[in-house]
Amino acid sequence: QMAMQLTWYRMHKTFVLTYEAATTRMFYEGRTETIRPVSEFSCQFARCFDDPLVSPEEKKDLLSKAIQYQEKSKFEAMRGQGFDRHLFGLYLLAKYFNLDPFPKFLSGNPFAYLLSTSQTPVSVTKGWSEERTGEAGGFGTVVQEGYGVAYLIVGEDKLTFSIHSSKSFSETDSQKFAETLTRSLNDMKALFKSP
């Protein structure tokens, strides 16, 4: 997830509302909740990563903090402590009842995720052969100007990404995203190999 945040920042020099799916299947008829991986820590990590004045140790520390925050958000969402589905319900009710004035905190499209992501759980891919990694499917864009990224971890040394964007929107380019993501992943790997 942090490699995708770094990729987006490298491409756009901004941060965006990002969707990451969390399962709520521990609840009767539970489906998903939203993990919000963007935090002050992920932003600090992405901003400093290409800065030669920031030490490798500081970059590693910021990455660790970003991952810890994302993990905390994930487990809160899985335990039913997320808030996006509640906000979405309020948004739908406000639209349905034509509330006037429309609640400010729901105005615009608060669910326009420019980066929409989903991971196939490691428990599902355990023991998969390399040939099976194409069976994981994909994850489409939520909005025309965004990306949909499905990813899976197979074993200890393989990551597979399925990247989708709209050809009708000139600002998105799945190939460029893939190339930048590959560079981000390789740079992050090199960071941990540095002395």
In short:
The chain is α/β, with parallel strands linked by helices and 195 residues long. Helix content is 42%, strand content 16%. It has six helices and five strands, in the order αββαααβαββα.
Structural write-up:
Helices cover 42% and strands 16% of the residues. By secondary structure, the protein is of the alpha/beta class. A five-stranded mixed β-sheet has the order 2-1-3-4-5. Strand 1 and strand 2 form a beta hairpin. Helix 1 packs across helix 2, helix 1 packs across helix 6 and helix 2 packs antiparallel against helix 3. The two termini are 24 Å apart.
Strand content: 15-25%
Mean pLDDT, to the nearest integer, reads 88
Q: What is the total tally of β strands?
A: 5
Strand order of the largest sheet: 2-1-3-4-5
What low-confidence regions span 5 or more consecutive residues with pLDDT below 50? none
Keywords:
single chain; 195 residues; alpha/beta; 5-stranded mixed beta sheet; 6 helices; 42% helix
Question: In terms of topology, how is this protein built?
Answer:
Layout lengths: L1 H11 L5 E6 L8 E4 L4 H10 L6 H23 L5 H13 L18 E6 L1 H4 L21 E8 L3 E8 L8 H20 L2
Parallel strand pairs: 1-3, 3-4
Antiparallel strand pairs: 1-2, 4-5
Helix pairs in contact: 1-2, 1-6, 2-3
